[in-house]
């Protein structure tokens, strides 16, 4: 279809297996992607493309679960 926007490119938790080192850059990549996903969900919701919304919501949920797993696995750093 012409005029259709390409969706955001996605980071996949399974890409190149699970990274052995979680960096702040990797976490920031997921946060940035989540922002893109939320905006895409809102745009598609506003034009009634519910199937697209569901696809983006699924990806957002996967990202949130991945970030939650990282947060749960990482020991809390002492704050000063």
Automatic annotation (TrEMBL):
<dbReference type="GO" id="GO:0003713">
    <property type="term" value="F:transcription coactivator activity"/>
</dbReference>
<keyword id="KW-0539">Nucleus</keyword>
<keyword id="KW-0805">Transcription regulation</keyword>
<keyword id="KW-0804">Transcription</keyword>
<comment type="similarity">
    <text>Belongs to the SS18 family.</text>
</comment>
<feature type="domain" description="SS18 N-terminal">
    <location>
        <begin position="22"/>
        <end position="75"/>
    </location>
</feature>
<keyword id="KW-0677">Repeat</keyword>
<keyword id="KW-0010">Activator</keyword>
<dbReference type="Pfam" id="PF05030">
    <property type="entry name" value="SSXT"/>
</dbReference>
<dbReference type="GO" id="GO:0045944">
    <property type="term" value="P:positive regulation of transcription by RNA polymerase II"/>
</dbReference>
<protein>
    <recommendedName>
        <fullName>SS18 N-terminal domain-containing protein</fullName>
    </recommendedName>
</protein>
<dbReference type="GO" id="GO:0005654">
    <property type="term" value="C:nucleoplasm"/>
</dbReference>
<dbReference type="InterPro" id="IPR007726">
    <property type="entry name" value="SS18_N"/>
</dbReference>
């Amino acid at each position: 279809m012409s005029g259709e926007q390409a969706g955001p490119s996605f980071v996949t938790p399974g890409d190149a297996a699970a990274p052995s080192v979680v960096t702040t850059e990797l976490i920031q990549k997921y946060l940035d992607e989540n922002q893109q996903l939320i905006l895409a969900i809102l745009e598609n919701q506003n034009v009634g493309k519910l199937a697209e919304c569901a696809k983006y919501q699924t990806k957002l949920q996967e990202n949130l679960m991945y970030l939650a797993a990282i947060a749960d696995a990482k020991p809390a750093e002492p704050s000063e």
